[in-house]
Amino acid sequence: MKKIFSTLFMALTVVAMFAQDPVITFEKTEHDFGKIHEEDGRVSTVFEFKNEGMTPLVLSNVRASCGCTTPTWTKEPVEPGQTGSITVTYNPNGRPGRFQKTVTITSNATEPTKKVYIKGEVLPKQAKPVNKYTIAVGDLSMKVMTLDLGTIKKGESKSGELEYANLSGAAHKVELATNAANAYVINQVTLPEIQPNEIGKFVFSLDTKLTKLYGPVEVYAYVVIDGKKEVSDSYKLVIKANIVEDFSNLSVEDKQQAPIIETAAELNIGKIPANKVTKYVFPVKNSGVNPLEIRRVYVTDSKILKAKGPKAIKSGKKGNITLDINTKDIAKGLIIVREVTVITNDYVTPVKRIKLTFEVE
User: Fold this and answer.
1) Cβ count near 354 (within 10 Å)
2) What is the per-residue pLDDT for 226?
3) Cα separation of 361 and 358, whole Å?
4) Residue 101 maps to a domain
């Protein structure tokens, strides 16, 4: 009997001891921030707790599961019946997407370890607008100064545009100056008088019916601001295109009667003298039935080479293409490689490229 009373006394003593310990309880143990914006910076929430025990409650440590989460808490002892708080701050910078973090609380409470949780979704920063108009054209600004219209079939037209912006603090009058010889390229200025922070467009239309040219073409237009024309690269717009013949409507008979160009793929003309202009002639033959029309002969380097050929070559006949080779600015001993291009109405090979090699002596 004495042993039973002893055991009962010890149990009651333990219960009494636990009844004296602090007890920590939370109003909430989880907080959902929902959707937050990364650029808005840190967000915080407060977890309130109460000591429902009989002795003071002391939080010895509060630790977050990662460095992006920072807790601050009541450091003083919390008396029975009183409340304290834990403020949890989350830093979303550089952390787009969903998140869930744990904060672990260690104390002298009957339950020495407790956990609270935060979660949410970080919406990524919107990219800041970038100034796309980085090329200065006088008091205006542009993104690019070259418009490539690509390939255009003969008989068709094609349009494109270049944007210009007024990033200055004053209004300006805007015009374009073009060469009358390039009348096959029509231009329009959408804002002839542009106010600050406005964006205008230079619209160019290339009409192939207005030119006899085939192959690559390049037209220049100069931006004129407030009536002042500046003929320099800083104001020069370049409009490019490649004009090709349209063979899509050829009948079977047309193809059978079509001309056929024959010429060497490579020309090695050996040594030519320095500091003079040398003429060189090479043949082109028409092996087809209808006349071979020479649309254009052009070279990759007009400072060194000039080329000209016949307008047409009859069936079975040859015609000569003449090159003027200028070596005045070329050092002796150099081997020069250039390309000569012949454009014809041969529907199979409308563009014939010929490699030209020579040595300056």
Assistant:
1) 20
2) 97
3) 10
4) yes
**Which of 97, 123, 149 is a domain's end point?**
123
Last residue of a domain, one of 223, 244, 265: 244
Tokens of 167: 């990033």
Phi-psi region of 97 (alpha: psi -120 to 50; beta: other; left: phi over 0): left
Torsion 161-162-167-168 (CA) sign: negative
- The model carries a pTM of 0.64
DSSP 8-state code for residue 287? -
Whether residue 68 is contained in a domain is answered as: yes
Q: Which amino acid is at 136?
A: A
Residue 171 CA to residue 340 CA, distance in Å, equals 48
- The pLDDT mean for the chain works out to 92
The pair of three-digit structure tokens given for residue 268, joined into one six-digit string: 């090695």
* Angle value at C-alpha 176, between 174 and 177, nearest 5 degrees: 135
Question: How do residues 321-332 score in pLDDT, each as one tens digit?
Answer: 999 999 998 999
Output the DSSP codes for 183-251: TTEEEEES-SEE-TT-EEEEEEEEEGGG----EEEEEEEEEEETTEE--SGGGEEEEEEEEE---TT--
Phi, psi of 156 (to 5 degrees): -110, 170
CATH number at residue 63: 2.60.40.10
Q: Which residue matches tokens 């450091």?
A: 75
Query: pLDDT by residue (tens digit) across 242-280?
Result: 999 999 999 999 999 999 999 999 999 999 999 999 999
Structure tokens at 285: 């033959």
Residue 202, pLDDT above cutoff 60: yes
The boundaries of the domain holding residue 90 are 2-123
Question: Using CA of residue 254, residue 259, residue 261, residue 262, what is the dihedral sign?
Answer: positive
Lookup result for tokens 């690019």: 144
Q: How far is CA 314 from CA 76, 285, 289, 341, in A?
A: 108, 9, 8, 20
Looking at residue 286, its pLDDT comes to 98
